[in-house]
Amino acid sequence: MPLSWVEIDLAALRHNLLQVRKRMSARTQIIGVVKSDAYGHGMLPIARELVSGGVHFLAVSKFWEAQELLVAGIRHPILVLSGIEPCDMEEAIRQQVRPALFRLDHAELMSRTACRLDTEAKIHLKVDTGMGRLGVPYERAPAFLDKLLALPGIKLEGILSHFAAADESDKSYSELQLSRFREVLGELAGRGHAVQFIHIANSAGLLDLPHAHFQLIRPGIMLYGSPPSQELHFPARLKPVMSLKAKILQLKDVPAGQPIGYGRTFLPEKPSRIATIPVGYDDGYPRLLSNQGQVLVCGQRAAVVGRVSMNLITIDVTHVRQAKEDDEVVLLGEQMDDRISAEEIAQTCATISYEIYCSIGRHRFKYFLNGAADL
Ligand SMILES: *Cc1c(COP(=O)(O)O)cnc(C)c1O
């Protein structure tokens, strides 16, 4: 056992998938979003669990992530959200990996390559309905469609867009995006074209915009057990999947005034007991938690004192009389009746749970609980 580690609770993932299913209609299917190493949770075990839980598609950001899934033997439809570059086009077509498509030159290359391979390339057209990021701008979608539908060798399997603010309590911008999306769908229908998969909803859309579910929904954060934002009315009982734990490496009694850590930013006012924990910013524990964070020891909260360094932090356990060396410390997750959530850490660091998961997820040691083999 290493001195610090990440635990991934696959039973919690299954529970969250069930919560997703409870909120969608019978005609809707799920795209499990496993980009960025499944938000740091470990793409392969998460993808396997989602596939066995019956998700219809998997979504990644980059083609190399899709290749990792394929090499691992996961033969499930894969959508690449950031599209596929020309150098990967032939391989992607051979493997039937679907790009989110937003550029005509990519579509043309795809068409030529598919014709040369004597096959059909499936794509999902990405429309920008107001996110202002990836996608064909919705007002240019009709002209784009005319050109796209004329290309041989391409099958428009799906059409998608992405909400910019579905996690806000005010849904007016999401409704505007939805009406623009419906306009584009109308243009498509007007050309006598039926696509199999229409999708726009992320976790927030799934929860708060049931009329935006269409044939597919694309939950990410909800699967990992966090609400998309604090603003969202959130009835679902989700279970966080990731924990970060470590053992007390050293325990020492220090006199009042003994500086703790780099920069001497913490000086105890009274004699104190300080525990050193082998976790630092290299493990994705944010340096912004210096003199701000809290952890759980023996079921009690203890404050991070002094700066977070690369591989170590120091916590004040003066009040936790029973704490001893090698005791387990929870930096993210549950211990006895208390929990340090990714939302709590994110709030202290002025960021979002997504970023906390991604950075802690780069930890070298991960243990997959409840079934899957350790990787
Ligand atoms: C990441 C992502 C999602 C998932 O979003 P969550 O807020 O995690 O549910 C859905 N769609 C697209 C296009 C994404 O990039």
What is the string of SSEs from the N terminus onward? EHEHHEHEHEHEEHEHEHEEEEEEEEEHHE
What number of domains? 2
Into which percent range does the helicity of residues fall? Answer: 25-40%
**Which spans of ≥5 residues are poorly predicted at pLDDT below 50?**
none
Task: Summarize the structure in words.
With 375 residues, the protein is α/β, with parallel strands linked by helices. The chain folds into 2 domains: 215 residues, TIM Barrel, CATH 3.20.20.10; 99 residues, Lyase, Ornithine Decarboxylase, Chain A, domain 1 (Beta Barrel), CATH 2.40.37. Helix content is 28%, strand content 24%. The strands form 2 sheets. Strands 1, 11, 12, 13, 14, 15, 16, 17, 18 and 19 form a 10-stranded mixed β-sheet that branches. Strand 15 and strand 16 form a beta hairpin. It is elongated. The chain starts with a strand and ends in a 6-residue tail after the last strand. The relative contact order is 0.15. The mean pLDDT is 96. It binds pyridoxal-5'-phosphate.
Any descriptors?
TIM Barrel, nine-stranded parallel β-sheet, Lyase, Ornithine Decarboxylase, Chain A, domain 1, 2 domains, binds pyridoxal-5'-phosphate, 375 residues, alpha/beta
Secondary-structure topology with pairs:
Layout: E1 4-9, H1 10-22, E2 29-33, H2 35-39, H3 43-52, E3 57-60, H4 63-71, E4 78-80, H5 89-94, E5 98-101, H6 104-116, E6 121-128, E7 136-137, H7 141-149, E8 154-160, H8 172-190, E9 197-199, H9 203-208, E10 216-217, E11 242-247, E12 250-254, E13 272-277, E14 294-297, E15 300-305, E16 313-316, E17 328-335, E18 338-340, H10 342-348, H11 353-360, E19 366-369
